[in-house]
Design a protein that fits this description.
The chain has one domain. Helices cover about 30% and strands about 35% of the residues. It contains five helices and eight strands, in the order ββαβααββαβββα.
């Protein structure tokens, strides 16, 4: 499985279903995941354009689309489309993209114990110890 550090999950080599389940732990009735996609990606991926546009909650600088999966099944698709590295945010119910609960980066070249590994990094946390107190217990529960 994977190893948890304070604000990173190292050796984050999971199936799409397992990875989605971990990310889904960040959501609840008051918080949702949002992902970014650049407009130029639509040129090569017409099918992706419709999927993203119909789930867009904010367009930044007429170039970056912030969109949210409506279900864990839609999250599977997002991970399938971005299997190596991606960034996402967890928003409060007000949908303020610039004031997220968490900024998350899944990164494939993280240095851990003198080797490179894939990791889920919590780059920003709005409320101190929110991840450790509220999210990590959910993740550990699905890891059983």
């Amino acid at each position: 499985m994977f190893e948890d550090l304070n604000k990173a999950i190292c050796n984050f080599y999971l199936s799409i279903k397992e990875e989605a389940e971990v990310l889904w732990c960040f959501t609840d009735a008051d918080h949702k995941l949002v992902f970014s996609s650049l407009k130029h990606n639509f040129i090569r991926h017409e099918d992706l354009k419709e999927f993203i546009e119909s789930r867009t909650i904010f367009i930044e600088n007429n170039y970056t689309y912030w969109y949210s999966p409506r279900s864990i099944q839609e999250l599977f698709r997002i991970i399938e489309d971005n299997p190596i590295t991606y960034r996402c945010r967890v928003l409060f119910s007000d949908d303020d993209i610039n004031n997220p609960r968490f900024r998350i980066h899944v990164y494939e070249h993280y240095n851990y114990k003198s080797s490179e590994t894939r990791a889920l990094l919590i780059n920003e946390e709005k409320i101190e110890n929110d991840y450790v107190s509220n999210i990590l217990p959910r993740i550990k529960n699905i890891q059983k």
